[in-house]
């Protein structure tokens, strides 16, 4: 559970930093861009299911409004498969940072 909370906070920062950069805010640009790039690279290198989970549930602007059950239903997988793939993806992102 602590891992999910930490990753949720990380992805909140990811979306905020993307928004600020796209809006032209250059404050701490290098640090923000480095975090975004590291996450993007980690996600790009993931197996397709892990990538889909992270992109749908955590990266898109709509992500804060989605619940886990919506994503695993959209993907047509069980909750257990979703949690397993999500946790694997979290580990890969944590290792990349």
Write the layout of secondary structure elements.
Elements: H1 2-22, H2 29-44, H3 48-59, H4 68-75, H5 79-96
Helix pairs in contact: 1-2, 2-5, 3-4, 3-5
Architecture overview:
With 97 residues, the protein is mostly helical. It has a single domain (2-96), classed as Arc Repressor Mutant, subunit A. It is built from 5 helices and no strands. Helix 1 (2-22) crosses helix 2, helix 2 (29-44) crosses helix 5 and helix 3 packs antiparallel against helix 4 (68-75). It starts with a helix and ends with a helix. Keywords: DNA-directed RNA polymerase, Transcription.
List keywords for this structure.
single chain, Arc Repressor Mutant, subunit A, mainly alpha, 97 residues
Q: Which structural class do you get from the secondary structure elements?
A: mainly alpha
Total number of distinct structural domains? 1
Order of helices and strands: HHHHH
Integer average pLDDT: 93
- Gross geometry: globular
GO cellular component, one term: DNA-directed RNA polymerase complex
Keywords: DNA-directed RNA polymerase, Transcription
Protein name: DNA-directed RNA polymerase specialized sigma subunit
How would you concisely characterize the structure shown here?
This protein is mainly alpha-helical.
């Amino acid at each position: 559970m602590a891992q999910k909370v930490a990753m949720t906070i990380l992805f909140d920062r990811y979306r905020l930093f993307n928004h600020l950069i796209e809006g032209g805010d250059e404050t701490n640009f290098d640090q923000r861009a480095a975090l975004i790039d590291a996450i993007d690279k980690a996600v790009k290198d993931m197996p397709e299911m892990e990538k889909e989970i992270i992109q749908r549930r955590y990266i898109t602007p709509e992500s804060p409004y989605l619940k886990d059950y919506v994503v695993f239903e959209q993907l047509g997988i069980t909750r257990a498969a979703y949690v397993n793939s999500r946790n694997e993806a979290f580990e890969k992102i944590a290792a990349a940072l």
